[in-house]
Amino acid sequence: MMTTKEIEIEIELQRSLEGTHQYRNGSQRRAATGASTTRNRVIGASAIGAGAIGAGAIGASATAAARLEPSGRVLYPELSYAIVGALIEVHRWLGPGQLESTYQNALEKELGLREIPFRAQVPIAAQYKDWEVGEFFADVIVDEAIVLELKAVSTVLPVHRAQLTSYLRATGCRLGLLVNFHVPVMIHGIKRIAL
Questions:
Q1: What is the spatial distance between Cα 76 and Cα 174, in angstroms, rounded to a whole number?
Q2: Kind and range of the H or E element at 160?
Q3: Cα separation of 120 and 49, whole Å?
Q4: What does residue 182 show for φ and ψ, rounded to 5 degrees?
Q5: Taking the chain (195 residues) in consecutive chunks of 10 residues, what is each chunk's mean pLDDT?
């Protein structure tokens, strides 16, 4: 017999699979961002192979992807579900214990298979008053809307949250996902941060 929590997760998985399909069709993407889908260093199904799409699609649970943001509504719900599904699929294949770069490479492949536009290792200028004083790199920016900060650590620290918050402010994106792959169940390693 399934517990109430397991039933809720199962329902949310079904909803997220539907959301991933809708997102892949493009109608939700344009509505979510209002922007063109042509991006720098975007990898799509044409570059990797469209035949593998959908076979292992998994969605998110309500606890990770459907929290209300400070504005009182969920930001980019369809895109969030699609990203979390890709994260779960990568974690399912690789498990915990790999290097961050390994997870990043696999996530880039999975986002491409799902035809979700993204840019990886995006340079961001560090500003001090009116001067550019350095540069840092966001791990992944998905559809110019959501910043992903990937980690493979035993414990997510407050400094990791601060790092993602800095990336959000510098890029102008309103939503970030702090992702720690060093967990037994991926959904427990995803934290949403919204400005």
A1: 10
A2: helix 158-171
A3: 19
A4: -90, 55
A5: 59 54 46 37 32 33 47 86 96 96 98 97 92 94 97 96 95 96 96 95
Please count the helices (runs of H) and the strands (runs of E) in the chain: 7, 5
Backbone phi, then psi, for 148, in 5-degree steps?
-110, 125
In the chain, the amino acid numbered 79 is L
> Strand, coil or helix: what is 67?
coil
**What is the pLDDT at residue 110?**
97
Give the whole-angstrom CA distance, residue 69 versus residue 174. Answer: 10
Can you tell me which residue has the tokens 């967990």? 183
Where are the domains positioned within the chain? 4-194
Tokens linked to 132: 């550019």
Cβ-in-10-Å burial (0-12, 13-18, 19+) of 134 comes to exposed
Taking 3-state DSSP, the helix, strand and coil percentages for the chain, each rounded to the nearest 5, stand at: 45, 20, 35
